[in-house]
Amino acid sequence: MLYQINLREVTYALSEALDYVGIDDTMHGKRVAYIACEIAKKLGWRQSKLDKLILMAMLHDCGVSSDVAHHSIISHLDWEDSQIHCAKGASVLQGVPLYQEFADVIAFHHTHWEQFLPQIDEDIKLSANLIFISDRIDAMRSQFGAHLTHEKEYIRSTIQKYTPSMFAPKITQAFSEISATDTFWYYLEADPIHYYFSEWIEHGEIETVPFDFLKSIAGMFAKIVDAKESEAQPHTPIVASLARTMAELCNLPLREQEQIELAALLHDLGKLRIPDAIMGKNISLSDDEKVRIRRQGFDAHIILRQIKGFERIVQIIFAYHKTLKQEECPSLNGNETIPLEASILVIAHKLQTLLQNADENSFKGNLEVANLLQKMGNEYQLNPLILDKIKSHFETCYKKDVHL
Asked: How far apart are CA 14 and CA 98, in angstroms?
């Protein structure tokens, strides 16, 4: 089906999940986009090129899912393995029609200016170097500050020191000119940068796009989330496929099926704000660590509610997380059945985990699944319709999981 969406708004909101990788140092992608855009304006770039540059800059770290990797990015001007996340990011973007033209720029966004091969397109080189210099400016701002005059001068002198080896001279010159005012630096603060981009979003066109177009964007962010835990075992696409199959078995209207699939792809966005050390912990968590785990649903909710047209998707994800944390939700009592869509997402998540962890030799198939469904039905007050459907069509769901 078709959806009415402001694609600038979609990118801005979802890029917030990438910024969450910084844990406490959020909004890095937006600051890089602001700096790059202001430098490009000084260079005389037309608006259409600026729009693409903003999108690329917001997504430039889409190859980073780990806060350890993010720490390297903001702690060093340059480092040996800087190209790894560039290659990952380019690969992720290649599979998304809206973003695939950005892949080459992202692949080169840590390439030194004097290391570019002569056959590389000039626009790609300039865009990549604009993002590179903006990225390094914000890294130094995060590390050393940019409030006092000597802090700003340190950043400016460091950039000048590594020109032209790392940065294009005309880009450095433009940065030197625009960064001479306090206003430039004020816009790197949270509130000003939000207002800066809110105007840009408001000028974005409402476009009519097919479901598969939106699915490719959601799928990209699902890959980024999954990479935080295991790049070898994708979890979210399988959950989404199972959820879509279950929605079809329940004979839900096509739009509701699509919304459930999108919700499944985006439901774990908040995980990107959980530190790696907590995600990989095998022993009991401290109270503070439990709080960080519990807030992932809230963080996903805050991101997605910014997108007009995603209201139903947000409701499904909110109900899903509320169900899994029912002990914190007094409104969910023994007489209350959660919405069918949320039931589907809960079951898809639990079933995929069961199948992923199952030992082929000991897995009891239908019997084990029936026991799991019975337990979930009692624990979460799930909609009985979907429980019966899965019991009756387990083989269909199992094949979906195995063949993805």
From this structure: 14
What are the tens digits of pLDDT across the range 45-60? 999 999 999 999 999 9
Mapped to the 3 state alphabet, what secondary structure does 170-198 carry?
HHHHHHHHHCCCHHHHHCCCHHHHHHHHH
The residue written with tokens 């195995």 in the block is 402
Question: Whole-prediction pTM value?
Answer: 0.90
250 backbone dihedrals φ, ψ, rounded to 5°:
-85, 5
SS3 state of residue 344: helix
CB atoms within 10 A of CB 282: 4
**Contact indicator for 337, 381 with CB cutoff of 8 Å:** yes
Mean pLDDT, to the nearest integer, of 10-32? 87
Helix axes 340-357 and 366-380, enclosed angle (nearest 10): 140
pLDDT tens-digit series, residues 126-150: 999 999 999 999 999 988 887 788 8
Residue 348 makes CB contacts below 8 A (sequence gap 6+) with 239, 240, 242, 243, 246, 264
Rg of the chain in Å (alpha carbons)? 23
- pLDDT (tens digit per residue) in 300-318: 999 999 999 999 999 999 9
Nearest to 321 by CA among 291, 290, 298, 347: 298
Confidence check: pLDDT of 332 > 50: no
Can you tell me whether residue 162 is helix, strand or coil?
Answer: coil
What is the full DSSP assignment across 302-330?
HHHTTSTT-HHHHHHHHHHHHHHTGGG-T
Query: Distance (Å, rounded) from C-alpha 328 to C-alpha 31?
Result: 36
Please give the domain boundaries of the chain with CATH numbers for all domains: 2-202 (1.10.3210.10), 233-402 (1.10.3210.10)
- Rounded distance, CA 270 to CA 134, Å? 26
Q: Which two tokens stand for residue 81?
A: 């393995």
Nearest-10 Cα torsion for 126, 128, 132, 135:
110
Position 361 scores a pLDDT of 47
pLDDT digits (tens, 9 = 90+) for 168-190: 999 999 999 999 999 999 999 99
Tell me the per-residue pLDDT of 67-82, one tens digit each, with 9 for 90 and over: 777 777 777 888 888 8
Give the helix/strand (H/E) hosting 146.
none
Is 105 within 8 Å of 59 (Cβ atoms)?
no
